[in-house]
Structures are given as C-alpha cells and as structure tokens.
Amino acid sequence: MSKFIQLHILTNYGPSNLNRDDLGRPKTVVIGGVQRLRISSQCLKRAWRTGDVFENAL
Fold it and tell me: How far is CA 42 from CA 3, 4, 6, in A?
C-alpha cells in the first residue's frame, strides 16, 4: 500500500491586469523576431464564442 499526501493550497494575489504594465499599456513579447502585443486566452475564447463560425456551427 503506497501513501502520499495531496495538498490543495489557495493563494491570494492582488488585483492586476496580467497583460498590462504598471502604466496601463499592453505588454509585448517578441515572437519570431517580431514584437507583438500579448492578449489573454480569455479574450481569445470570447472572440471564438461570439464569432460567426461558432454561431453557424450551432
């Protein structure tokens, strides 16, 4: 019989916008040698849900 401990820990984080810097400007990342703006996965998923392709599929 094996024994293990499983921990579930809640962590508090202060309010912040992860895709914006301290001045409120969008954060950037270099991908493929090109500087691009970061967008959240939540933003992408909402765009997919509200898009015409998703609506037509239903």
Answer: 38, 35, 29
Digit-by-digit pLDDT tens for the chain (58 residues) are 789 899 999 888 776 676 787 888 888 888 889 998 888 888 888 888 888 888 888 7
Structure tokens given for 31 = 């991908």
d(CA 24, CA 35): 18
Tokens encoding 9: 């820990």
Domain extents in the chain:
28-57
What is the reported pTM? 0.41
